Amino acid sequence: MGLATTFVLVMANIAISLIKNLVPDKVRIPIYIVVVAAFVTVVDLVMAGYAPALHSQLGIFIPLIVVNCIVLGRAEAFASRNNIFSSMIDGLGMGGLGFAMALTILGSVRELIGNFSIFGYKFIQSDGILIFILSPGAFIALGFLIALINLITKKSLISNTFHYGIHYNDNKYSAGQQYCAGQLSRNLSLSWCFRKT
Fold first, then answer.
1. Which of 23, 27, 114, 146 lies at a C-alpha separation of 20 to 30 Å from 52?
2. CB-CB neighbours of 169 under 10 Å
3. Which residue, 135, 142, 32, is CA-closest to 87?
4. What pLDDT, on the 0 to 100 scale, is given for residue 197?
5. What is the DSSP string of the chain?
6. Residues 137 and 98 in one domain
7. pLDDT tens digits, residue range 160-180?
8. Are 91 and 152 part of one and the same domain?
9. Considering the domain boundaries, does residue 109 fall inside one?
10. Could you tell me if 121 and 27 are in contact, meaning their C-beta atoms sit under 8 angstroms apart?
11. Whole-model pTM?
12. Exposure of 65 by Cβ count < 10 A (0-12 exposed, 13-18 middle, 19+ buried)?
C-alpha cells in the first residue's frame, strides 16, 4: 500500500507540476483528481495482473488512494507551485515514503500488542489483545502513538502558552500579546498565537 501510494504521489506530482500553467483555477481540483485517478488505475491494473493475491487483500483500499488527502493535498500545496524535480522529491519523501513509514509503524504497533509478534516472529507464546488486530485497533493504536508523540514533545511546549483572540476593526479582545492573525474577512480576523512565559 505504501509503495502504491508512493508511486501515485510521485507520478501525480510530476504530472501536475508539468500542467500547472495550463489548468484554470476554477477547475484545478477536479483536474488533479483525474490525474491522480489515472495513476491509481495504472497501479490497480498492474497489481491485479502481476500480484493478484496482494490485489485481493488490499481490495478497495487501492482505488481509495484517489481521495487520499495526502495525495491531493501535496498536489495542491506543493506540486502546483513548484518545478518538476522539487515536486518529484516532495512526492517521494514527504508523502510517499513518509506515508509508508507511518503505515509500517502503525501496523507494527498493532501486531506487537494484538498478537505479541513483530513481522510474523512471535516472541510471547500467548494470545494478544484481540481488539488491536481488528479494525478499531488501528484508531486506538493511532491514539496511543499520538499521545506518545505529545508526551515526548511536551517539554518543548511547556515554555510556550497558547493564546487565541478575536479582533474586530483592530480592537483586541484577548489576553496576552498577539504575534499572528488569520484574516477571516475585511473587518474580522481570528488569531492563533504563542506567547513566551
1. 114
2. 7
3. 32
4. 40
5. -HHHHHHHHHHHHHHHHHHTTTS-GGGHHHHHHHHHHHHHHHHHHHHHHH-HHHHHHHGGGTGGGGG-HHHHHHHHHTGGGS-HHHHHHHIIIIIIIHHHHHHHHHHHHHHHHHHSEETTEESSSS---GGGTSHHHHHHHHHHHHHHHHHHHHHHHHTEEEEEEEEETTEEESSS-----EE-SSSEEEEEEEEE-
6. no
7. 544 444 444 444 444 444 444
8. no
9. no
10. no
11. 0.66
12. buried
Give the end-to-end CA distance of the chain in Å, rounded to a whole number.
45
Say whether both 12 and 96 belong to one domain: yes
> Phi/psi at 116 (nearest 5 deg)?
50, 45
Dihedral sign for Cα atoms in the order 77, 80, 83, 87: positive
Note whether 186 and 95 are same-domain residues. Answer: no
**Cβ–Cβ contacts within 10 Å for residue 77, how many?**
12
Q: What is the Cα–Cα distance from 153 to 51, expressed in whole angstroms?
A: 41
Type of residue at 103: L
**Which range marks the domain in which residue 83 is found?**
2-104
Instruction: Say yes or no: 118 and 164 in one domain.
Output: no
Residue 189 has pLDDT above 90, yes or no: no
Pull the grid cell for residue 149: 508523540
